[in-house]
Each structure stands twice: as C-alpha cells, then as structure tokens.
Write a structure and sequence with these properties.
Elements (H helix, E strand, L loop, with lengths): L19 H6 L11 H10 L2 H4 L4 H26 L9 H10 L7 H17 L4 H7 L2 H27 L1
Helix pairs in contact: 2-5, 4-5, 4-8, 5-8, 6-8, 7-8
Length: 166
Amino acid sequence: MTDSLQSTAEPIPLSVWSNPWHNLAFGLGSGTLPKAPGTWGSLLALAFVPLWQMLPPWAYGLLILASMLFGVWLCGKVAQDLGVHDHEGIVWDEFAGIWITFWLVPEGWYWLVLGFVVFRLLDIAKPWPISWVDRDVHGGLGIMLDDILAGFAACGLMHLAVMLLS
C-alpha cells in the first residue's frame, strides 16, 4: 500500500531469508528495512538500471514486461502465503516501477536521481487513477498495478524532462 516513514507495522516474516520467492518479493531483503521499505526497494532496483540501459530498447522492454507479469504472480503468491493483502515489505512492485521509469531515458547519474525522485513522489502521493487502483484492485495485480502506473507516469515525465532539459 502506501510507503510511510513510520516503522514497519507488520512483522517481517523469517521466510524472507529461507524462501526464494519471499526473498524476491521483499526485494532481496531491501523490503525488510525498518523505515520506508518502498524507498529502499526502489533504491536497490535503481542499481540495476544502468545495466538494463545497456540492453537494446526491445530487450529492456521485454525485461519490463516480464518483471510486470512475473510480479503479478510473485506478489500475489507471497501475499497469500503471508495471509495479508499487501505487506509493506513486498517491494517487487517498486522494482518494476523503477525499471519502467527509465525505459528509453538517457544514461547519466542526474537522470537516475531525477527519475528516482519522480517515481517515489508519484508512488507515495498516488494521484488519481493510481490511488483508485491502490484502494480498489486486489491480489497480485492490485499490488503491482499502482506501481506500474506510477512507473509509466514517471517515464512520461522523464521523457518530458529530457526534451526540455537536453
């Protein structure tokens, strides 16, 4: 759901360290950090972006598509395993959202910083229709879709910034 700067309300399941699906859903452990797990997950996902930007655009696009489809299954499975709608430590959705943000965006540390900030602001503020999806769509699709929409919105804003600032 929403990423807050409060301490994690839900306990971190020990299965994050023993179950590979739980570990992936919790962003290789980044979602277990006590404050703002979505921000930490986004930051770890950001580390992969320079690698993905070396791929041809079609391959990066396929990677994004695969991360979204896999994420719907993964997040739904792990939420069901844990018996919760959307544990705030599940951050695979932030991984996909960050990777969407940077599709066809030029390389460079300043673009990485700007895209990270834009994505996190959209993911936290959840303007309409992101807020509607976050509230009314459930299961793995619901966990993923708000971050997918935030990622596409951030990607659009990044392309606008590239046009205006380059």
